[in-house]
């Protein structure tokens, strides 16, 4: 295994195409997709979980979303919209939505019903039940869905490079194009390390935002 | 207990079905290489680079061979030269359409030797540097060169006619090409060495494909690497910058083949193709694929029929 | 789209067949490998966390990198479909080993203890009691692995072997959406059919799950 590309200081300055610059653009894609995906999927998942209406969608969204090939979707979007951030964003957001939607739904559905009944019993209105009781208690499940979405999108964002965009996929695609395996290896390692770090950060965040009472009961 | 047996049987059944699917139709995707001996003797695996013209030429070669009774396996769209040459050397593929100048340049360290630009000279020089176990057949008069191309707007704005004209303005311009251009002599390296040109930025796009064309049209790049046979040059009224210092050599289309796969039938079939192929008929045939979106196999068949080869 | 389909039926059919083989052979291989590996994670509890972590890291390696690297590691040819098969098998094992372990761990202690009391030895108990009880969880994992494999195969098209993914690159190189659309639709349909087959197998082999009011 040839690590020369990864450890060459010349690839660690902040010029165009350097590793730090690619990490930043990679994380930018990941962040945008996660934020956008959450904005879309969370309310839908919570609505379905809270009301029980449309459960069919939530149960099947996971597998249907996973079955959409990201590479194809991305190439379709670039063909339709041209080069730019938008096609990547659409393709990656589609990838992020299913796990978040499914976990939001599952988080609410698997709650102990007596707790929800008790909340209603003390006179909470539906929105209060949702935001003060259901959501905090569903957080562990929701976060695990979010974490798996994040892992997937970090690894998959590499396909952006195959349509002429940036991110760490550039190391893979360019390394492949110029037959430089050391560069491909650098890309693979940096992506894997990034994924592990991100998961660690999200795990810490989860500890921090999940109520101690919920954690203890799980 | 019996449930689990049922499960086991079901899974075994599934495995068997998959195994059968994999072997069905004589196109077992797992049998084509690795041992090298598993492909039936006399089968030629034809490869292609990742752009439309290469695939079209590979399809023409394939059908010409099939017309002579040779069994062909198609392994198109592999990638850039750096990658497919490796595939040729490890025997994953046996044959593919090449461009004599670009191939020579890729195989010679520091670019093609100086003073070599005519087709015959290029071919002579090329034969000396071919990887062992490979050979080239007759080259065709059809040429497809790498070009540096700009939009009419960019050309008039910076009064560009030749690549040399780029020198004073290149620092403000973004160039787009396949990612392999970063390292190629007939890419950024040669532009710097031969013309002394360095661009503001390099955008890795595709090998003269629609991404590059699109980026040019939208001014996301100002200079693009487009192939001279590409119909987009005419449709978009692009300006091809003249290569006054012959960075891009003669680029005649030529079959590159593994010696072990070659025999008189193969040579005969491919040389007949090369003899009929011209820059004009290649350009118009390619337009059927690129512009009219016709199926590559049908277009290749049409070309062979027109030229009495099928 | 209809004209595209009829003009290119041969190419599409070949791509689909390759796609099925490249996606599903790894599912079977990965499943067979994940069973013993997952069991080890339960039999030796100290192995569970390392197992989960290694699986997580393996899963986060980009597929393209794995496709390109395996020839270096395995000595296979760079265009060998074997590279795709091995890469996807690795992903499948990474996903399923954990599911198998979780499934076996979720078996109620009372159940295993009763089995032991009835005279089952460890191996027979595993085969006759624990595995069947854990099967719904394991098959749920198998569904995920199958569907994501089907979607991942297409990335192989970037190195010239990607089943339906080749329709994506073909369309993309011509800026022509028909092949891309056909590829996406077939890929999603294939995933749906494969998923359905596993659900049917699951219903057939674990009929008891239907009597608990749970969803199959």
From TrEMBL, chain A:
Gene3D superfamilies in UniProt: MetI-like
Record's bilayer topology term: Multi-pass membrane protein
Chief localization: membrane
Stretches assigned to the ABC transmembrane type-1 domain: 23-202
Segment forming the signal sequence: none
Pfam families assigned: BPD_transp_1
Subcellular location per the Swiss-Prot or TrEMBL entry: Cell membrane; Membrane
Stored SUPFAM superfamilies: MetI-like
Transmembrane intervals: 27-49, 70-97, 149-173, 185-209
PROSITE patterns named in the record: ABC_TM1 (PS50928)
Keywords tagged on the record: Membrane, Transmembrane, Transmembrane helix, Transport
Cytoplasm is among the record's keywords: no
Protein family membership: Belongs to the binding-protein-dependent transport system permease family.
The protein's name in its UniProt record: ABC transporter permease
TrEMBL record, chain B:
PROSITE patterns (alphabetical): PROKAR_LIPOPROTEIN
SUPFAM superfamilies: Periplasmic binding protein-like II
Domain of life: Bacteria
Keywords, sorted A to Z: Signal
Every ABC-type glycine betaine transport system substrate-binding domain range: 43-306
Signal peptide interval: 1-22
Keyword Signal: yes
Protein name: ABC transporter substrate-binding protein
Lineage: Bacteria, Bacillati, Actinomycetota, Actinomycetes, Micromonosporales
From TrEMBL, chain C:
This protein's UniProt keywords: Membrane, Transmembrane, Transmembrane helix, Transport
Domain ABC transmembrane type-1: 16-198
Sequence intervals crossing the membrane: 20-39, 51-72, 78-97, 126-144, 150-168, 180-201
Broad class of the protein's primary localization: membrane
Top-rank taxon: Bacteria
Membrane-topology descriptor: Multi-pass membrane protein
Subcellular location: Cell membrane; Membrane
The keyword Transmembrane is assigned to this record: yes
Gene3D superfamilies: MetI-like
Family assignment from sequence similarity: Belongs to the binding-protein-dependent transport system permease family.
Protein name per its UniProtKB record: ABC transporter permease
């Amino acid at each position: 295994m040839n690590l020369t590309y990864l450890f060459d200081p010349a690839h660690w300055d902040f010029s165009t195409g350097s590793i730090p610059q690619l990490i930043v653009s990679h994380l930018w894609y990941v962040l945008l997709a996660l934020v956008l995906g959450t904005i879309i999927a969370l309310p839908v998942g919570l609505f379905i979980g809270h009301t029980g209406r449309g459960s069919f969608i939530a149960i099947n969204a996971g597998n249907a979303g996973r079955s959409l090939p990201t590479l194809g979707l991305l190439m379709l979007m670039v063909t339709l919209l041209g080069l730019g951030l938008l096609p990547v964003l659409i393709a990656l957001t589609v990838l992020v939505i299913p796990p978040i939607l499914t976990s939001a739904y599952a988080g609410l559905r698997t709650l102990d019903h007596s707790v929800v009944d008790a909340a209603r019993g003390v006179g909470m209105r539906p929105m209060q039940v949702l935001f003060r009781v259901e959501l905090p208690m569903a957080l562990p499940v929701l976060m695990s869905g979010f974490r798996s979405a994040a892992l997937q999108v970090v690894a998959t964002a590499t396909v952006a490079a195959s349509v002429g965009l940036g991110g760490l996929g550039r190391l893979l695609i360019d390394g492949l194009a110029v037959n430089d395996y050391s560069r491909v290896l650098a890309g693979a390692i940096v992506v894997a390390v990034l994924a592990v770090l991100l998961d660690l950060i999200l795990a810490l965040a989860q500890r921090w935002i999940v109520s101690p009472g919920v954690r203890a009961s799980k | 207990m019996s449930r689990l047996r049922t499960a086991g049987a079901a899974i075994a059944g599934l495995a068997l079905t998959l195994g059968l699917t994999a072997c069905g139709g004589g196109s077992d995707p797992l049998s084509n290489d690795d041992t090298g001996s598993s492909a039936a003797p006399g089968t030629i695996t034809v490869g292609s680079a990742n752009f439309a013209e290469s695939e079209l030429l590979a399809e023409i070669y394939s059908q010409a061979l099939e017309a002579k009774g040779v069994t062909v396996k198609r392994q198109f769209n592999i990638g850039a030269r750096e990658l497919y040459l490796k595939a040729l050397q490890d025997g994953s593929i046996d044959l593919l359409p090449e461009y004599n100048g670009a191939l020579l340049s890729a195989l010679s360290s520091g670019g093609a030797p100086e003073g070599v630009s005519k087709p015959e000279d290029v071919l002579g020089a090329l034969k000396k540097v071919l990887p062992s176990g490979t050979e080239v057949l007759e080259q065709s008069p059809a040429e497809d060169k790498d070009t540096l191309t700009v939009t009419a707007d960019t050309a008039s704005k910076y009064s560009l006619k030749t690549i040399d004209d780029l020198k004073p303005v290149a620092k403000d311009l973004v160039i787009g090409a396949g990612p392999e251009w970063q390292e190629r002599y007939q890419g950024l390296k040669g532009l710097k060495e031969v013309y002394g040109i360095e661009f503001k930025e390099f955008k890795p796009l595709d090998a003269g494909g629609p991404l590059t064309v699109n980026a040019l049209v939208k001014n996301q790049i100002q200079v693009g690497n487009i192939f001279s046979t590409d119909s987009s040059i005419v449709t978009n009224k692009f300006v091809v910058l003249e290569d006054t210092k012959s960075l891009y050599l003669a680029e005649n289309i030529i079959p590159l083949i593994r010696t072990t796969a070659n025999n008189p039938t193969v040579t005969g079939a491919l040389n007949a193709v090369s003899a009929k192929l011209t820059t004009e008929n290649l350009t118009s045939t390619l337009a059927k694929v690129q512009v009219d979106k016709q199926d590559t196999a049908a277009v290749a068949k049409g070309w062979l029929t027109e030229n009495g080869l099928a | 789209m209809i004209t595209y389909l009829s003009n290119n039926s041969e190419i599409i059919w070949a791509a689909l067949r390759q796609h099925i083989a490249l996606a599903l052979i790894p599912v079977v291989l990965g499943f067979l490998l994940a069973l013993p590996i997952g069991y080890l994670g339960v039999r030796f509890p100290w192995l569970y966390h390392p197992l989960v972590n290694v699986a997580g890291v393996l899963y986060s390696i980009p597929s393209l990198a794995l496709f390109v690297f395996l020839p270096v590691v395995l000595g296979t040819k760079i265009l060998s479909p074997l590279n795709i098969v091995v890469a996807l098998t690795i992903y499948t094992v990474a996903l399923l080993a954990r599911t198998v372990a979780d499934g076996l761990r979720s078996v109620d202690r009372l159940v295993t203890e009763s089995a032991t009391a009835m005279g089952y030895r460890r191996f027979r108990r595993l085969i006759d009691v624990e595995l069947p009880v854990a099967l719904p969880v394991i098959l749920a994992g198998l569904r995920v692995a199958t569907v994501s494999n089907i979607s991942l195969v297409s990335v192989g098209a970037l190195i010239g072997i990607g089943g339906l993914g080749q329709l994506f690159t073909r369309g993309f190189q011509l800026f022509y959406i028909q092949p891309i659309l056909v590829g996406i639709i077939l890929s999603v349909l294939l995933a749906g059919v494969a998923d359905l087959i596993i659900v049917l197998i699951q219903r057939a082999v674990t009929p008891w799950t239907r009597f608990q009011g749970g969803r199959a």
